[in-house]
């Protein structure tokens, strides 16, 4: 029987039929993002672990015990949390950016844009994938640090908070980069000239207090510094900046990045013709 505007349960074309939240659509997108990186776990999970192990091995062989203590810690104990967070943020960025740019290049971005998903639901789906990958990598590296270096976690709640904030921040930035870039070469430029320098020059391998001015002051304007510093506080119990201050800076930065990503998705910026 054909429905008319006066028929019970009639809905006009374009009206959402899922209520305030399309939980099934969100679950499907999140599951797709998680399965996407888990299907190639050798590249997305095992490779970052090998890279982290190589960093620690090279620094241990090159410096040995001659480096001395940093912030009251043996150098490898100081280095470990920075390596962990650097790997986390790089993987979170890679997860969302590669997903968006691959879909755009292959022409199947319509599979994400056409389903009845709001901008917030699309954003949440991609971020869940980034956070899941970041947490798996972080757990694996933390386990390796405990087994090889004998380094535990001093403040688990703080560590988890900074890992999740780091994944959200870099997952959001990866989403923005994927939207802006139109080809893989442009994405490589963003990764090589923005993401990698910011992560390497944020206190991963040294204390920023050892930097001369104005580089020390500039380091405190880098939000990734607070992620590295916060992870170091959570794992080793020491930090260059107050942990609460770093948490607030990271939370505000995440809010700004995610709002921008939501706005771009809502307007279809560089995603829709």
Provide keyphrases for this structure.
273 residues; mainly alpha; two-stranded antiparallel ribbon; 10 helices; elongated
Structure summary:
This protein has ten helices and two strands. The protein is mostly helical and 273 residues long.
Describe the structure.
By secondary structure, the chain is mainly α. Helices cover 70% and strands 1% of the residues. The protein has a two-stranded antiparallel ribbon. 37% of the residues are buried.
The whole-angstrom Rg is 21 Å
Order of helices and strands: HHEEHHHHHHHH
Summarize the amount of helix as a percent range: over 70%
Oligomer kind = single chain
How do the strands of the widest beta sheet line up side by side?
1-2
Supply the number of helical segments.
10
Number of beta-strand segments = 2
For the largest beta-sheet, the strand count, sense and barrel status come to:
2 strands, antiparallel
Structural class: mainly alpha
> Which whole number gives the mean pLDDT?
87
Beta-strand percent range: under 5%
Low-confidence segments: none
Morphology? elongated
What is the CA-CA span between the terminal residues? 38 Å
What topology does this entry show?
Layout: H1 23-38, H2 41-63, E1 69-70, E2 73-74, H3 75-106, H4 110-113, H5 119-149, H6 156-180, H7 184-200, H8 215-219, H9 223-236, H10 243-267
Antiparallel strand pairs: 1-2
Helix pairs in contact: 1-5, 2-3, 2-5, 3-5, 3-6, 3-7, 3-9, 5-6, 5-10, 6-9, 6-10, 9-10
């Amino acid at each position: 029987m054909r429905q008319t505007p006066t028929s019970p349960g009639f809905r006009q074309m374009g009206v959402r039929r899922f209520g305030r939240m399309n939980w099934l659509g969100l679950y499907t997108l999140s599951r797709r993002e998680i399965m996407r990186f888990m299907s190639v776990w050798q590249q997305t999970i095992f490779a970052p672990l090998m890279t982290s192990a190589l960093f620690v091995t090279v620094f241990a062989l090159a410096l040995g015990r001659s480096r001395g203590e940093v912030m009251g810690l043996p150098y490898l104990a100081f280095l470990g949390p920075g390596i962990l967070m650097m790997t986390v943020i790089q993987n979170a960025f890679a997860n969302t950016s590669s997903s968006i740019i691959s879909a755009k290049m292959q022409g199947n971005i319509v599979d994400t844009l056409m389903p009845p998903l709001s901008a917030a639901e699309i954003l949440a789906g991609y971020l869940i994938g980034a956070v899941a990958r970041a947490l798996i990598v972080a757990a694996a590296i933390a386990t390796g640090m405990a087994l090889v270096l004998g380094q535990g976690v001093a403040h688990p709640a703080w560590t988890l908070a900074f890992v999740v904030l780091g994944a959200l921040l870099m997952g959001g930035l990866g989403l923005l980069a994927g939207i802006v870039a139109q080809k893989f070469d442009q994405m490589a430029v963003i990764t090589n000239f923005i993401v990698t320098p910011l992560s390497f020059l944020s206190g991963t391998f040294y204390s920023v207090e050892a930097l001369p001015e104005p580089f020390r002051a500039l380091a405190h304007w880098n939000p990734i510094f607070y992620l590295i510093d916060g992870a170091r506080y959570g794992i080793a119990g020491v930090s260059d900046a107050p942990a609460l201050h770093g948490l607030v800076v990271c939370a505000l930065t995440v809010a700004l990045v995610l709002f921008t990503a939501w706005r771009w998705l809502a307007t279809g910026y560089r995603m829709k013709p």
